[in-house]
Specification:
The chain is built from 19 helices and 34 strands. It is an alpha+beta fold. A hairpin with a 2-residue loop joins strand 15 and strand 16. 55% of the residues are buried.
């Protein structure tokens, strides 16, 4: 009897435990469900908004409400019309605009005519999926994708005149289409290509190829050129301002499925992408697969506690950090090399199973990413960082330069300096090295001298200086003066000098771990060149004329970019010495005076939400100022870093369509910065040190779990737990690292990589003894 009772008790205990575990598993929040794709979409950018896409997807399929211009284009929340659904929203790339319609055909008349009104009623957008109703046509459009294939499901009304338009000659985002061609392959397939005209950033016309398959026979294929329909029955249409459409009949609420694969190499490669990634026709399964993929990627960092709004903002930020920069190679690793005079098809290296070792990527410059993506990716997504490093090394071998920001296989020379040096130094010094590191360093070293990429001003493709280049001046004088007769846009001497000096330090750190002592010493000496644009009379970084004198009419806080700077001013750039805050503080009269001055700038900027207004003392809407709150850590006042990081996070906490980034979200950089601020980890030097370490501020959440990639790091997880966390309790009172009391504001990357636990106790008043150097 006693045995029976014991068995019953054990049974109920196990049953209770099983039910409890099941309930916990069932109620666990999926990170993708917390992403709000509409955040700050009232002021969008072509590559900003995404819905039906995978992480870094070549295809990023979404509705376009505005199609002209790189800015204020793509999906804008307050727009009233949908002009098309296009498949590519990338840095200087666009293409393959389609649109379902019914009734009188208007495709040849352009998007201004065939566009449809819509509203947000019934609209659903989430990572990997978008659903919207085209009111003018009573068509429900649903979109999902794989990495290289867009998948459409259109629910039509009853009509004898149902269409899908392929507006291949349309103006999309960055410029016009130079030429396009579309042809009918068979009764359920069309194919084609578009040539994107060159832009001021992307110097060469660039092709995109596509294949579209339907689950329904095509009744007829029609086309036009320059708005004029082609009367005769045709199977092919080509030319300038050309396009095509397919026609069929539909019954009431008939669902028509279409798969569209793209490639930058050829139609055959687009077809290979389609057949490899999306052989079947199960739209709901494809949607689920995409959603699951996002959950896997977003789940690399798990957060618990905090408010739901904070969790939404966190995962929306993380989602932004995992897109914008796009895959441009095909499933078999083929990619288009446009670095030289003639376009060539190249092949990435294959692994032992014959699969591509990494994808090739398209991306805007790394300018400012040392305070965002470089840190986040190297912590939680080292494989991604490896892929980008491989892409840049391939481009060096293809065209002779490590790129600043490639578009469609072109060099673009967007922004300034060589921020790739910071990216590589962070990767290499954290042990991310699955690429030809010797070639990488060779290319980066080349960029640091005349005839390297630093010679090119912003967007300046051809170097044609009457005298010396900017790097000539830098090497000779230790600074870049004003008016060097550069043809680029961003040639301010102070900005260039400070960026070059930091990049030199990054190269020194990489050289140190590569045991290149001569280069280490040379670049370390050059990294002190920031001192040459410091004016002790004004107490700020100050531009210099050709004769070496300081320029006149100097105002450090002017809100528009003044002479000598790049998208910022002296009040911001005067703190752009990520590698030597201690040395900068010494120039400023010592740490106490330095902290007081910087703190006063934050106090002035708080009323403006830390963005430019009548004056600009702190700016978290653009890259040059995004490390300022963390400067206090190294300046001897960690509690002020804790305070101002929280205040900045609060100012950028909006989760509506009308705020959130308050400026320029460059392909995930501001999203990544938001993630780092929320978890309380940062690296003022960008993580490029020969011995990287993380600096602490107060996290927003009760628990943060970072899952480590065991292909790179030996640990399983790194966990951060807080106690007494609240809006008021922003100050670190004490901490433990792996069970031991921890009184430093930093800990090493080596400790992080081994896994472990950081415990932080928070309070509402600063503990000015904790963490002070």
């Amino acid at each position: 009897m006693k045995t029976a009772v014991n068995l019953i008790v054990v049974f109920f205990c196990y049953s209770f435990f099983f039910l409890a575990c099941t309930r916990k598993q069932e109620t666990k929040i999926q990170p993708a469900s917390l992403v709000n794709v509409f955040v700050d979409t009232h002021n969008s950018r072509w590559f900003y908004f995404s819905s039906a896409t995978h992480p870094f997807g070549m295809v990023n399929l979404s509705p376009d409400t505005d199609t002209k211009g790189s800015w204020k284009s793509g999906y804008l929340y307050d727009s009233k019309q949908i002009r098309c659904f296009s498949h590519i929203h990338a840095w200087q790339l666009s293409g393959v605009a389609v649109m379902p319609t019914v009734g009188e055909f208007k495709g040849n008349l352009g998007m201004d005519v065939y566009q449809s009104s819509f509203n947000h009623e019934g609209e659903i957008a989430e990572p990997g999926y978008h659903k919207v109703i085209l009111n003018d046509y009573e068509i429900t459009a649903e979109l999902t994708s794989t990495a290289r294939v867009g998948f459409h499901r259109y629910t039509y009304p009853k009509s004898n005149n149902s269409y899908i338009i392929f507006d291949t000659g349309a103006f999309l985002a960055h410029g016009p289409t130079k030429y396009s061609k579309v042809w009918k392959v068979n009764d359920t397939e069309v194919a084609g290509y578009e040539i994107m005209e060159a832009t001021i950033r992307r110097p060469k016309a660039t092709p995109v190829y596509f294949v579209a398959k339907l689950n329904k026979p095509i009744e007829s294929f029609i086309g036009w050129e320059d708005s004029v329909m082609i009367d005769n029955p045709i199977d092919t249409i080509d030319g300038v301002n050309a396009g095509a459409a397919i026609k069929f009949q539909t019954t009431e609420r008939e669902q028509v499925l279409m798969k569209v694969a793209v490639s930058y190499v050829s139609v055959e490669q687009a077809r290979l992408n389609l057949e490899t990634e999306l052989a079947g026709w199960n739209f709901d399964q494809a949607r689920k697969n995409s959603y699951d993929e996002w959950n896997k990627w977003l789940g690399k960092i798990e957060v618990e506690g905090g408010t739901r709004k904070q969790q939404v903002r966190f995962y929306t930020n993380l989602w932004h950090a995992l897109q914008g920069r796009r895959i441009v190679s095909d499933v078999n690793g083929k990619y288009l090399d446009m670095t030289c005079d003639t376009a060539k098809v190249k092949q990435v290296t294959l692994d032992k199973n014959g699969k591509p070792s990494f994808p090739h990527y398209n991306f805007d410059a790394w300018w400012g990413s040392h305070w965002s993506l470089d840190i986040l990716w190297s912590m939680a997504y080292p494989e991604v960082m490896d892929g980008f490093c491989n892409t840049m090394v391939d481009m060096y071998k293809d065209g002779g330069l490590i790129p600043r920001g490639p578009a469609g296989g072109n060099y673009t020379f967007v922004m300034i300096g060589d921020p790739s040096a910071c990216f590589f130094a962070t990767a290499y010094n954290k042990g991310i090295r699955n690429y030809d590191a010797e070639a990488a360093y060779e290319g980066l070293r080349k960029n640091a001298f005349p005839e390297g990429s630093r010679d090119h001003g912003g967007y300046e493709h051809k170097i044609d200086y009457p005298d010396k280049t900017m790097v000539d001046y830098y090497v000779e004088r230790g600074y870049v003066p004003e008016d060097v007769n550069a043809k680029g846009w961003h040639c301010g001497g102070v900005a260039l000098t400070l960026e070059y000096a930091y990049q030199d330090w990054c190269l020194a750190q990489m050289a140190k771990n590569m045991e290149n002592e001569a280069d280490y010493n040379m670049f370390m000496k050059r990294s002190e060149n920031y001192k040459n644009v410091w004016n002790p009379q004004t107490g700020y970084m100050h531009p210099r004329e050709q004769d070496g004198s300081w320029i006149g009419n100097f105002d450090p806080s002017v809100s528009k970019t003044p002479r000598g700077f790049c998208e910022s001013n002296s009040a911001i750039y005067s703190y752009f010495v990520p590698h030597d805050i201690e040395g900068l503080a010494a120039l400023s009269g010592g740490k106490d005076a330095f902290v007081e001055k910087l703190n006063s700038q934050f106090e002035k900027a708080q009323q403006y939400g830390f963005v430019p207004n009548k004056e600009m003392w702190v700016d978290y809407s653009n890259q040059p100022g995004t490390g300022m709150a963390h400067v206090f850590n190294k300046a001897g006042a960690p509690w002020l870093s804790q305070k101002w990081v929280r205040k900045v996070k609060e100012a950028f906490s909006d989760t509506t369509a009308y705020g959130g980034y308050n400026g320029d979200e460059d392909q995930g950089q501001m999203g990544a910065l938001g993630v780092l601020m929320a978890i309380g980890l940062f690296e003022e030097d960008g993580g490029a040190s020969a011995n990287p370490s993380y600096e602490l501020t107060s996290p927003l959440f009760d628990k943060i779990t970072i899952h480590l990639d065991n292909m790179y790091y030996p640990g399983k997880t790194f966990i951060i737990e807080t106690k007494n966390n609240s809006e008021q309790n922003m100050y670190i009172q004490s901490a433990k690292l792996n069970g031991k009391n921890w009184n430093k504001y930093w800990f090493s990357h080596k400790t992080f990589a081994k896994g472990g636990k950081l415990e932080i106790i928070l309070g509402d008043k600063p503990n000015k003894t904790w963490g002070k150097p």
